[in-house]
Amino acid sequence: MAKNSKIEWTHHTFNPWWGCTKISPGCDFCYAETWALRVGSAVWGAHAERRFFSDTHWKEPLRWNRDAANDHQRRRVFCASMADVFENRPELDPWRDKLWDLIARTPWLDWLLLTKRPSLVARYVPWEQSWPANVWLGTTIESQEWVEQRLPHLLKLPAAVRFLSCEPLIGPLDLRPYLKQIDWLIAGGESGSRARPMHPEWPRSLRDQCLQAGVAFHFKQWGHWHPVNPSQFRRTVQLKDSSGNMIWMAPMGKAAAGRDLDGRHWDEFPLTIENRGTTDDRATYISRFSSY
User: Fold this and answer.
1) Whole-number Å distance between alpha carbons of 115 and 170
2) N or C: the chain end with fewer CB closer than 10 Å?
3) CB 153 within 8 Å of CB 125
4) In a domain? residue 240
5) Per-residue pLDDT tens for 38-96?
6) DSSP state of 31
7) 3-class secondary-structure state, position 221
8) What is the mean pLDDT of residues 190-204?
């Protein structure tokens, strides 16, 4: 749990529990598992117990909601950075029920539910065809292999906002057939010492696809690797662009690599409850909330 989260695209983070099971290549070097182990919580894997929290923890979003209401300013809550709300484990059911109640009691908070298991969402949510206006539903798409496996399930669900997290981006993506049904796309490279380099053409392609479709685009980070002048770095890996030109990537670490993409930050966000309207309204809103 964190007020004023360090994650660039949310205000707060809330975890109903800690722990998950890896299910795809994007999970290979999971930052959440690494962090849990660092603080002594062995909560990863199908046979590991999950870590649950006290009522004090669960009261924090109620305070965030009061603050947001007093400020007349909505706040985004990423749920859950250290788990997957839709993991198929029966012992999580009462905690999920507690989460649905909390979401209903916090109308000034936009709850960002990000999952790698969109096929299980309909089984666990209580809303059927009438979803709360403050629930945003997203799925992780790390490579083209997972487009067909996850996106159709997401698109069947009538969430107020549908979004994609293309992080860690470990392959090129063609999302053009689907983007008219997506409100927001987050892209970023992998962080950590074992991170896989993200080819610079991959986030640029996603940015261009979003611009063409009128979808809000958020570039979160380069991650551990960044394109460089090879003469200035002792360790590099070589990639080729679509024209056959060489690109050198060096392991700089997340902070040094930064989040500039072609000279600017891409901090676009989708329409919120009070700002939805026509396609023109959407384009104006996205442009107005971009950071140059």
Assistant:
1) 17
2) C
3) no
4) no
5) 998 999 999 999 999 999 999 999 999 999 999 999 999 999 999 999 999 999 999 99
6) H
7) strand
8) 96
